[in-house]
Amino acid sequence: MHSKVKNRAEDKVKSIVEDKDPELVTKRRMQLVEAAIGQFSRVGYYVATIKDIADAAGVSAGLVYQYIPDKQDLLFLCLQHIVERNKREIPAALEGVKDPLSRLVVAVESYTRVIAANRNAVLLTYRETKSLKPEYVALMKRMELDTNALIAACVEDCVKAGYLIPTHIELLVYRIITNAHAWALKYWRLRPIVTLNQYIELSMHSCWMPLMTPAGQKRYDQIKNTSTKRKS
Amino acid sequence: MHSKVKNRAEDKVKSIVEDKDPELVTKRRMQLVEAAIGQFSRVGYYVATIKDIADAAGVSAGLVYQYIPDKQDLLFLCLQHIVERNKREIPAALEGVKDPLSRLVVAVESYTRVIAANRNAVLLTYRETKSLKPEYVALMKRMELDTNALIAACVEDCVKAGYLIPTHIELLVYRIITNAHAWALKYWRLRPIVTLNQYIELSMHSCWMPLMTPAGQKRYDQIKNTSTKRKS
Amino acid sequence: MHSKVKNRAEDKVKSIVEDKDPELVTKRRMQLVEAAIGQFSRVGYYVATIKDIADAAGVSAGLVYQYIPDKQDLLFLCLQHIVERNKREIPAALEGVKDPLSRLVVAVESYTRVIAANRNAVLLTYRETKSLKPEYVALMKRMELDTNALIAACVEDCVKAGYLIPTHIELLVYRIITNAHAWALKYWRLRPIVTLNQYIELSMHSCWMPLMTPAGQKRYDQIKNTSTKRKS
Amino acid sequence: MHSKVKNRAEDKVKSIVEDKDPELVTKRRMQLVEAAIGQFSRVGYYVATIKDIADAAGVSAGLVYQYIPDKQDLLFLCLQHIVERNKREIPAALEGVKDPLSRLVVAVESYTRVIAANRNAVLLTYRETKSLKPEYVALMKRMELDTNALIAACVEDCVKAGYLIPTHIELLVYRIITNAHAWALKYWRLRPIVTLNQYIELSMHSCWMPLMTPAGQKRYDQIKNTSTKRKS
DNA sequence: AATGAATGAGAATTCATTCAT
DNA sequence: GATGAATGAATTCTCATTCAT
Question: What's the pTM value of the predicted model, to 2 decimals?
Answer without folding.
Answer: 0.91
